[in-house]
Amino acid sequence: MAVRTRIKIRHLIILFFLFYVVYTLVVQQLKMMDLARQEAELRQQIEMAIQQREQLKKQIQLLHTDSYIEKLARDKLGLVKPDEYIYKSNKSAP
């Protein structure tokens, strides 16, 4: 009977070890999948930041042009060139 008990204990130990290995592999696989998802999200955020940086570079270049500065002065500040007049309508929207 002692031999049979040792065999059962040995089987239980092997079974426990196999369960532990499988559990560890599954948990690690899930972590790897989560990290891959996070990496994809971060890559997408990086791409969006690069695009935004390029747009801002274009805006900065545009800000240094005389035509854009003139447009801002006219639209935002209401400035006019010498001998130029602004006509405003007093029409009310219905």
TrEMBL record:
Highest rank taxon of the organism: Bacteria
Entries under PANTHER family matching the protein: CELL DIVISION PROTEIN FTSB
Organism: Biomaibacter acetigenes
GO cellular component, one term: cell septum
TM ranges: 12-30
Cell division found in the keyword field: yes
Gene Ontology biological process terms from the UniProt entry: FtsZ-dependent cytokinesis
Coiled coil ranges: 32-66
Keyword list, A-Z: Cell cycle, Cell division, Cell membrane, Coiled coil, Membrane, Transmembrane, Transmembrane helix
UniProt-recorded name of the protein: Septum formation initiator family protein
Pfam families: DivIC (PF04977)
